[in-house]
Amino acid sequence: MQIQLQEDVLFILEELEKNGHSAYLVGGSIRDAIIGREHLDYDISTSASVEEMEEIFSKFKRIDVGRKYGNLKIGIDGKNYVEVTTFRKDGTYFDHRHPSEVEFVGDIEQDVSRRDFTINAFAYSKDGRLIDLFDGQGDIDRRLIRTIGEPLDRFVEDPLRMMRAVRFCAQLDFLIEERTFDTIKTCASMIRKVSKERVREELSKIILADFSSKGMRLLSITGLLQYIIPDLDKSFYLNDAKTKKEGFALEHMLCVLSSVEPVLELRLAALLHGITKPFVTEKSIYQNHVHLRSNMVLMILKDLRYPKNLIEQVVNIVKFYDMNQWNLSEKDLKKMIAMMGEDGINNVVKLREANRSCELREDYFESRVKNILHNKEPVSKKDMKINGYDLIKIGFEGIDIGETLELLYEEILEDSSLNRKDLLYQRAIEICKTKR
């Protein structure tokens, strides 16, 4: 396999080799090249120490990003920097992010073994040799996210890796391998050990991804979301105030999320705009609802350490997206546009359009099918809690058996709660009496 290397990446690899060091392109850029996906960040691993790298690239811009870990950023073209790291093995992780000590080693095999997932553990030489020790290519073919070694070990080292697994699913439309998935569910509470800033960055990447709704659903079913945004996780599975459907709010919010363009303030507003929906009844005072929603969104985003300006934009979008209920005059509407600016008011319009579209979809075929299957409602006669032998015992004969089964079947299709043996027996007895 041949990867087209950027000029600055190729130059760094060549210079390191000229000076007697081995060097490889590593990590996600190789994964994306295999998949055929664009990648903007490049990482190199080398046998050279930081001091040796500084000497080799003394004429170029350099940024020391972690000398003790062997990390140096090198800027060849004056614009972009490539992170170059000395081959190493990591010791125990003292803060669930950084190893307490590292051991610099002489070969690439030991270096890639410290990576998180198989699809990120590639190394590629400038002459086209691909190193894949953990069947990363196989997992790409299988569309799986799998940890290197024991999932528990990788997540104890850095619990953020659990969110990274979800993020890769949201970006690549992959699945999480079973043992890795089960371990995330078991260890979900460990995400509380990660700084809010790091959690925020992963959450932003998930909701901006091409398959953002898949990512949010995974955050919820793995148990991670209850520790990241507890109120949102609760709202997903409460009965909706209007439809009384369990999980309705989840489907609606994910529909809106995937329907708006991938702009951070708009995606955050789409995710959080209905956070109070399960708690609001038809008799609720609308202004109180708006105040509650705005405050909840404000507190959630502040807790995740989002910038003040972004928080203000998101709060305004969720505050005004259903403003038609306020019966705004032309004058007040113009004042609002002036306050929010053109981008802000356009985001309100975009959220309203997505929300309206998804409300129409809620009664569509796909949504209704999913609801029926999720609730395990009876759909065929074999799902009935009564059969022809039961009717014979009651006293039915001949064609009356089939006709009665058909009648009972039609009734439980209308109301699945009637599909209980005692209720069906009682109803069958009543029918039998009318036939005598």
UniProtKB/TrEMBL annotation:
Native species: Filifactor villosus
Gene3D superfamilies cross-referenced by the UniProt entry: Beta Polymerase, domain 2, cca-adding enzyme, domain 2
Protein name listed in UniProt: CCA tRNA nucleotidyltransferase
Domain CCA-adding enzyme C-terminal span(s) in chain numbering: 298-426
Pfam short name (any one): tRNA_NucTran2_2
Cited CDD domains: NT_ClassII-CCAase (cd05398)
Keywords: Magnesium, Metal-binding, Nucleotide-binding, Nucleotidyltransferase, RNA-binding, Transferase, tRNA processing
SUPFAM superfamilies documented for this protein: Nucleotidyltransferase (SSF81301), Poly A polymerase C-terminal region-like (SSF81891)
